[in-house]
Structure formats: structure tokens, C-alpha cells
Specification:
64 residues; alpha+beta; Factor Xa Inhibitor; 3 strands
Length: 64
Amino acid sequence: MPKQKTHSGSKKRFKVTGTGKIMRQQAGMRHNFEGKPSRRTRRLSKDQVLAPGDAKVAKKLLGR
């Protein structure tokens, strides 16, 4: 049986923590920073834990 390949798009978007949680980047950090308050850009720059339903799919795509 051949090995399962990791989904290329998923490995670029998600990272797995030591405890097995899947982290993702928050939306809204690509452009228009002059119009956004610094407080908001700082909040959006942090990674967020993926929702449980989405995490199940993402784990499968990452081969875990």
C-alpha cells in the first residue's frame, strides 16, 4: 500500500501544536492597514485554533 501524500495547500495554511490542536492564520491581514486600528491588526496577527468541525477535515488532509 503506498503512503498517503500530505495536501500541499493544507500544509501551507495550518500548523499542528504539540498537543495536536490545529492553528490557522486569521483573515484580514493582507492589505488596507492604514484604515485599520493598530489594536485590530495586533489582534488579527495572532494565530487562532481551528474550529472542531474544520479541524477533523484538516487533520485528514495533513495525514494525521
